[in-house]
Amino acid sequence: MDDAAKAAKVDRSSPFTAVPIEITISVGRARPLIRDLLAMGKDAVLPLDRRVDDPVELYVGDRLIARGELEELDGDQKGQLAVRLTEVADIQAGV
Question: Which residue numbers delimit the Flagellar motor switch protein FliN-like C-terminal domain (predicted)?
Fold first, then answer.
């Protein structure tokens, strides 16, 4: 099913479709030793387990709902970060 068909399937008459949710975007994780973390100060660099071109993960709570690529918006929103979705979980089917 393509994205347009999925969007058409959403029951927009339900009052729950107007409730905002918070989506967390994960760009990577770090696992420093506590002694290294305590030694960090301003301008310290904390390496992540991902590369710049790797996909980011989108979560609602602890549930992975999508993956995407970071990009910068243009026009009036120039400089603002956004995520272009590249893979979306089938939330209604629980997959």
Answer: 18-89
